[in-house]
Design goal:
The chain has about 80 residues and is mainly α. It contains 3 helices and no strands. The longest helix has 29 residues. About 0% of the residues are buried.
Length: about 80
Amino acid sequence: MTEVIMTIPDNLAQEARAAGLLTPQALEAMLRETLRKQRVDELFTAMGKMAAVDVPPMTEAEIQAEIEAARAERRACRS
């Protein structure tokens, strides 16, 4: 376990303590939720960037050629 010491304004500490937010369990839950939200935000940012890239869609023949090339590469690595 890691111990964290932080400095916050007295009035904020009093309010947080009164609301039960300064317990290890509450702090852990808040940190986990914040990290989850950050990951979701990062995912949507990445999705937005990907959607903005102007790449023409692949044809079925191009997709099949990529699959065959990947399979051939995999077979070559096993040999």
